[in-house]
Hints:
The protein is built from 14 helices and 17 strands. By secondary structure, the chain is α+β, with helices and mostly antiparallel strands. The strands form four sheets. Strands 1, 2, 6, 7, 8, 11, 12, 13, 14 and 15 form a ten-stranded mixed β-sheet that branches. A three-stranded antiparallel β-sheet has the order 5-4-16, with no helix packed on it. It is elongated, with a radius of gyration of 31 Å. The chain binds zinc ion (ZN).
Amino acid sequence: MKKSNQLRKNNQLRYKNFTAVIGLEVHIELSTKSKMFCGCSADHFGRLPNTQVCPVCLGLPGALPYVNKEALLSTLKLGLAFGAQVNNFSKFDRKHYFYPDLPKGYQISQYDIPLSQGGKIGEIRIRRIHLEEDTAKLVHQTLDGKKVSLIDFNRSGVPLVELVTEPDFNDPKDVVGFVKEVQLIARYLGISSADMEKGSMRLEANVSVAKDAKVPDYKVELKNINSFKFLEKAIVLEIARQIKLITSGEAVVQETRGYDEAKGTTFSQRTKEEAQDYRYFPEPDIPPLRFSDELVKEISRSLPELPDQVRKHLISEYGVRADYSEIILADRKRVEFFEKAAGLGREENISPTLIAELMVNKNMDKDFPEATGLIKRILELTRRQYAKANAVEKAVKKVVRENQKPVNDYGQGKVAVLGFLIGLVQKELKGKGDSKMIKDLLVVELEK
Length: 448
Ligand SMILES: [Zn+2]
């Protein structure tokens, strides 16, 4: 965390007496088989529009929702992975608002009692993690020369986790580091592809700036950000915009803003609603949820090894470089491959650092479906290296034996003859020798 403190300092310098205050909302679509409150398939990406729908997820009057248990368990897993407190009693609530992607006029979400509260990643505190249903997808197109908006209900009702952090970030770079870690954790838990491009992970940032360490009384919500790169850029732009406003004596309006990559600006979308505008009330069609301590313990025990634990293993147990370990642990399969190869390598005296190096720099694990293949290849390469070293050593010995005068000169401190001797060895090897290897072996031989 030293690095992030340093960044924070740099950041504060850059913003002079202003400090950015940033909180995050991360939406993660769960990869459950069925949707949150009906039996329709939740796997909606790239499917023919409106083919995975039923009265429940179309919001038809009288249709009754029933809860997807798998989605509940996945959300609890995520909370427990962050060390959150699971609420033994929880419930769903209706969040009312009008938009064409929400035919019921309300979204089933969670208001005052989310599935879990608290937890941390590094220094960033998590406020809450709750479960809700995703909305339908609006597709804006031009049909017969007219601009139209089409609605695809395949996404309507897909389980969606919302993770909200405390406003603990001061540096946009830390925000990106955090969401990358959340993405990794979701993938390690196997609860979501957390793929930004497919929209299974979506980000919103609440940005405000504090002047002279005074807590800001507003926040601007940045929406529709679809890559890590844009997230950082959008926040940086927004901080600059707010500082400019405040410096010129204007107040920053509490609102929702989008990000325009082409123009390099954020733009106003709508003024931000307050919680009371949503008229939350308990969902009457779904009974409250209860989770026993035993169940919570059982889920905790079932958690797989998480990215941070893997990180520690790779660095401290295997001695892998920190940057290499990040590359390897970004893909769970590569971690498994590495661990297997390192185990096999131990028997053959092949160091785990060499294995990591070949995986990261030469992508060698991609060439071999099995770790044993990589190990065989490494052995082959070292054997070849060994054969080369043998030939050089032979030539060195011959040159030393047959050129007593320069050898004696070297013994008397005339180091300059080394170049001449290297030339002779190279001649023996018909110019195919590795000059560094020749020099090393020659020095060893001369100093015997
Ligand atoms: Zn349905």
